[in-house]
User: Fold this.
Amino acid sequence: MKFQRSTAWTSVFCLVIAGGVSRAVAAPPGERLIDKVVKAYQDIQQYDATLRIDISQPQDRWTITRTGEYRVKFDRPANRLLIDTPDQLAVADGQSFYYANPRLPGKHLKIDTTSPVTCEWIVQQVPFMAFPSISPDVAFLISNDPLGFMSAGAAGDPATLPPDPDDPQKRPRIQSALQAGTLTLTIDPKTHLIDKAGISVDAAALGSPGMTLTYNFDIHINSIDQPIDPDRFAFDATGSKASASMQHMLASGSNAPHPLVGQPTPPLNLPDIAGKNHDIATDDPDAKVIVLDFWATWCGPCVAELPELQTVYDWAKDNGKPVAFYAVNQGETTDQIKAFWSDKGLSIPVLMDQNFTAAQAYQVNGIPHTVIIANGKVQQVHVGYRPGIGEQIKAEIQGLLESGKQ
Assistant:
């Protein structure tokens, strides 16, 4: 899959929203503040907004902050949509839906769009185009269940809060539980549209001990129900090859040698599905070769490749080969992995790269992405799947063990 930079901060929310959909709106329209907000967005025909997003992540003695800008344009009658974030671009021009990622250079997704386009449909096509890549205002514009979409897996209805004591505008707020945190929306009392959105994530609940994240959206609405030039929804495909599905797009790696081949091994320290941390540099001191496979359950080529890798893993284990294997999952939950591993009869150790730090370090531009390490350096990188890849990887491992590159 492709990981755009900020995929690290975007992707945590791919996990936060994982789970069943909670039905937040139960009362008849107009009785609660949340109903008024839902109706206000449903009534909008054209929408143009600029969002500033600030992310804060405490880390040891430091706090890492990131700032970006989202651009959102929506024309309901024409079924047109633009979501332009620091690391992803999604465009629906009324006929086709396009998706591009700067870390997937030279290719883009192009498929027929649905009518109407919805958040749920977008995420089906692009699993990583999730909240907050699909920001709160977009969710209220086009989701079948906006609050459920953003707070899936949480229990209970949203709460209406009084204004923040420090808010001179005295704007009411709505707060909803997330799977691992809270979502707080600040509402303009005149328009019932969202002015600000704050998300607090306890990532320890997602298997990343000690990590907390806060996301703050400041939404500036440029115009409502004013004509938007159709050219603003044009997608520039110059120099880019169209893919008919995300699986094809993510698995179609470049023929050029991967830039990490021959380079020192990047560090990798991740928890397994039981929450125990593993540092590949010290985890298995007897290992002469290390194999990392970056994958996800929704990736068809990954699912096809894993049985072949399991065969290689069993071969190494049964023959006492000094080889360490890790299946590095991208952005999913431990419950998903446990069920999938059990169903497929797999036993390769799994590490959880839930915020994509390892994917960034290993320059993963498509999955499956298999890395073979020996002598402290990256020896081979395979992007994508083709039948027989397991035998090739086995031969490469054996070659490294016999050649003394250990």
About this structure: The chain has ten helices and 19 strands. The longest helix spans residues 300-318. Residues 1-30 have pLDDT under 50 and may be disordered. The CA atoms of residues 269 and 282 lie 10 Å apart.
